[in-house]
Amino acid sequence: MEFLQGQRLETTVAVAVAVVAVAAGAAYLFVRSRKPKGCLDPDNFREFKLVQKRQLSHNVAKFKFVLPTPTSALGLPIGQHISCRGQDAAGEEIIKPYTPTTLDSDLGHFELVIKMYPQGRMSHHFREMKVGDYLSVKGPKGRFKYQPGQVKAFGMIAGGSGITPMFQVTRAILENPEDNTKVHLIYANVTYDDILLKEELDSMAKTYPGRFKIYYVLNQPPETWEGGVGFVSKEMIQAHCPGPAADIQVNFDCLITEDYSPELGIGSHQLCLFKAESQHGAVSPFQVLRCGPPPMNKAMAAHLDYLGYTKEMQFQF
Description:
Blueprint: H1 2-33, E1 46-55, E2 60-66, E3 81-87, E4 93-98, E5 109-115, H2 121-128, E6 134-141, E7 153-160, H3 163-174, E8 182-189, H4 198-207, E9 212-218, E10 228-229, H5 234-240, E11 248-256, H6 295-307
Parallel strand pairs: 7-8, 7-11, 8-9, 9-10
Antiparallel strand pairs: 1-2, 1-6, 2-5, 3-4, 3-6
């Protein structure tokens, strides 16, 4: 009898341990699956403290802003941007859109890579910011929400600081093990020193050689240069972007600057959104938006038209 009672006790304990283990495992998975609540407000500006400002070149700096807790996420969907509010040199309020280079997987902070122009109004605000200052941010802004696998490949054409939305989307694609989308990026600048995020881009190209290709184009290249020279041409697009197809999308044709650049034929602050068409004919309600002076955008659209990319694969105002 004592032997049977001992067996029952052992069985009861084993079942209890198993139940606790299953409950603990379920709780762990639940916590892991929960997404942190975003810190942004689409209607009201919120303040975020600058904790690090690192100069990358004479006119480019990386700004790191802390979120309320170490486990907080900014809450910015892939492909969207934030509105930043500041003051220009005359003390007047200025609001400009920027795309963080961080993702929501980067908990506790977000980062902005800012190119500061001599006469740029928002550039003045960022140039004057010191560690401990606060930045007013509102968002998310934009209509694009990236869906993994919506196309087989993205073609991207960027110039100057227009690289930031491409970098954000490319990171999201490559860091998702279930996303097999390929990315082909043409990135144009005036000089070598103007290339933003080059170390990070080169690292991604090395880490994901079968999924990410990048081709640099410089208007004023150094003596030793293996990339493209001059302006982005039809031949460059043909050689370094996926060909037109129902399930391949050239998504970005954008430049973001605050000042006119005669070298690149661009100007004004521009921002990018996206459009995609799948091989099944399902079209995303998002389109490429090219804002501001149109010289390069017009040239790229003409190139893409010539190469057979339909209007459904590209869009411009």
